[in-house]
Amino acid sequence: MASFFIDFETGRVATKRQLMAANLHNGVDPPKRPWHPIRSDVDASTLWYVVLRKRERGIWLGTVAFRHSDHHSLLLEQGWDEVPAEEIVTFGPAAGPDGGPVGPVEMSPSPFDS
Predict the structure, then answer these.
(1) Residue 88 pLDDT > 70, yes or no?
(2) What is the residue extent of each domain of the chain?
(3) CA–CA distance from 49 to each of 3, 46, 75 (Å)?
(4) I need a surface site. Which of 1, 21, 63, 97 has the fewest CB within 10 A?
């Protein structure tokens, strides 16, 4: 489960824990520019949800949609791109429960990949 943020200048996506581990977020106040929160359920997981981004008017926008839903299909038709979970995982050090780095992270297999 994660809260997601997008760097509106580069389109890079990270979780709250990753930004905290990289000292870009203190966990209380909003992170500084260029990081912007992506609105989603608090318990959004990349198992059930997909993070999408789109470049619009010179900045990157981010959103989250339930996988394989009509809304997800509509966003793809409108030019939104899925952000692979592997790309999100590669942002900086992984963060443990205390917010500190824990080393490399392996992706769990997705039940949607066959």
Answers:
(1) yes
(2) 4-89
(3) 12, 5, 13
(4) 97
